[in-house]
TrEMBL record:
The keyword Acyltransferase does not apply. It comes from Candidatus Avitreponema avistercoris. Residues 31-147 form the Aminoacyl-tRNA synthetase class II (D/K/N) domain. Gene3D superfamilies: Bira Bifunctional Protein, Domain 2 (3.30.930.10). GO terms for cellular component: cytosol. PANTHER family: ELONGATION FACTOR P--(R)-BETA-LYSINE LIGASE, LYSYL-TRNA SYNTHETASE. One of its GO terms (biological process) is lysyl-tRNA aminoacylation. InterPro entries: Aa-tRNA-synt_II, aa-tRNA-synth_II/BPL/LPL. Keywords: ATP-binding, Ligase, Nucleotide-binding. This is Aminoacyl-tRNA synthetase class II (D/K/N) domain-containing protein.
Amino acid sequence: GSRRRLEAEPLHSLYDILFIQCVEPELARGGPVFLTDYPAFIPCLAAENPPDGSSFYRTRARWELYAGGVELANCYTEERSPQAVRDFFDGESRRKAGARVPHPADGSFAGTCARLPPCSGVAMGADRLVMLLSGRKTIEGVLPFPPDIPGGF
């Protein structure tokens, strides 16, 4: 038989694969579901939850709302540590080093985060909500603009 070589993948990439292949399909079976306290190894700007002694792994203050197997909302508590913010953007720069369009980090942003009061925000996909409410199976039928614009923005 042929053998496949398993390439080394960052832990967050393996998590994404398992989540998309194993968890998301199950989310379509019931009613609305809130997923909370995401693993801390997933790169994002959500603040890390303080250890509470009840868990052996670190988590981030982040939640997502799924309905009908579709992610409708994403919320997290903002990271305010300048070093954590710098580390995040340094990691993003490394991951996207080969991208066609470079995304340099804004060096002043990390310092600005330190001056924020404790805060959070939520992003809700209105197009996804309309898709679910209208019974559509794909989002293309509810978008007010073509999903693939030649040349980009």
